Amino acid sequence: MDGTGNTLDQLELARRLSPAYAAVEVVGSTGSTNADLLAEAQRGAADRTALIAEEQTAGRGRRSREWVSPRGSGLYLSVLLRPVDVPPSQLGTLSLVAGLALARTVTGLGVDAVLKWPNDLLAGPARAKCAGVLSEVDPASTTVVVGIGLNVTPLSTEVPAGAGGLPATSLAAEGARDTDRTEVAVALLSAFAELELAWRHGGGDLERAGLLDEYRERCVTLGSEVRVELPDAAAITGVAADVDGSGQLILDAGDTRKTVSAGDVVHLRANSG
Question: Is the N-terminal amide bond of 231 cis, ω within 30° of 0?
Fold first, then answer.
């Protein structure tokens, strides 16, 4: 395959991702793979069920932003998880785990990539957005659905900029050595399965799971002057000093330190490190 618009091979995906995943399904088109799996959770879908769509017509990112998901040009996937031994307060760290899986996969394809807290994947010299993560929790069934959107083949001009005007890019645009979407999906879901298992063993705490140091190393936000735009429309400006085991960003804001658990980060200057 030439990696441009190639069709996902469900049989190959299911074969190579077993037994790490209970089920792997590929659909031609859907509104949102996250929404589909949240509905399947109510019908008893198994732990570690994965759903991949050739296109999404109502793809969503964080804070209800649209994620443009044209047919055959990216990976639009979700994984349903039932981590019954992880405290509810730690379920949010799964988004950072998914970000790590993206970073491992994309750098393994020869692309320079880093993470912007909490889970945006930036690629190439321009640090453009290549992927994002949306995790949603169904408290009624202690289920988490982790959605990942990864731009693989060349982008159309219709892809909007992200928060803070962050431009979009793709694996193809950054010179990835392989853009066959089946191969990329196998690599990404395999990396996520390995990291998610460690995350469960650590009770959802990134430090206990042995993942925090790697996250810190890959996170370009640390050491940068940033503005965090909070869900209530307030904003905090400071230097991103650290990330803790619960995935919270620690800011040096003047004479005080503030801890942020949710928000959009805009980098105000290049990382000083």
Answer: no
